[in-house]
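ARCHIVE CARD
Drawer: 12
Card no.: 0347
Subject: one protein chain, sequence and derived structure
Cross-reference: see card 0346
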Amino acid sequence: MALLLHGTPLSFSDEELAVIAEYEKRKEAVSNPFSFREYMASSNLPDFKFPPALHHQKIMEAFQWWADTENAKLMLFLPFGSGKSVYSSVQLPLWLWARDPSLTILCASNTQQLAESFARRRRDAVDTKEFHQLTSAKLRPDAKGIQEFINTKGGSMLARGSQASVTGFRSFANIVDDPHVDFSQVESKKYRDEIYLWYTGILRSRLSPGGRELLCTTAFSDDDLAHRLLRNEGERWRVLRIPEVADEPDDILRREIGQRLWPEYLDESRLKIRESNPRLW
């Protein structure tokens, strides 16, 4: 096959063309989260196996803006079981490292156990051939712990439960996924005050200049962490809200009012359970 360079034909062997095509695939994978997931799919890890549904694509579009924008604050509201954690807690931090392996990323979830579960999945992905092909950074042999692992380019990922200590860590990005355990926890005003102070005082103090904040959650009350942040500093946040049942005429997925989210996965029996308890709706 021949390509043109300044009008001059250049010939390449099939092997050379394969190298060029692979280079372009890797370049795309680093540049956007869509191509990153597609590239990592050949790892056969469950977190990259399935193509994104439409609502996942909207999440990934928001991630692109967030990663490219200094001081960006992004808030995602999605229902239980919508796959939001696969993208927020696994794919996003890994894509950030593929873009720049020197980044320090703080990932928090409602319990230390859950945070470490996501960390194991991220660490498994970092150890794959596919990820190594996107970045020359590998995990340091002496820093492969679940709570924090560090790569050979100086990048670090820290996993913490809500309200845990983050002293001594400086982050490019704070990613908080599902900060609350359940409704009974959020019913406590003392708890709501404490997690708000932890987020705005302790967690946020770890951000480097220009650092990004992501809060991915399901709505629990009008005074949970996300809603209190919006009430006090809403103008600073970009919000992506995708309810389980469309309730507005300008639904971001172009659904009709009453149309369900991801019906091929979230079936009607699930909605009947939610309808029986207004707090789940």
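Annotation on reverse: The mean pLDDT is 92. Strands lie at 2-5, 8-11, 73-77, 104-109, 139-144, 148-151, 156-161, 171-177, 207-217, 238-241.
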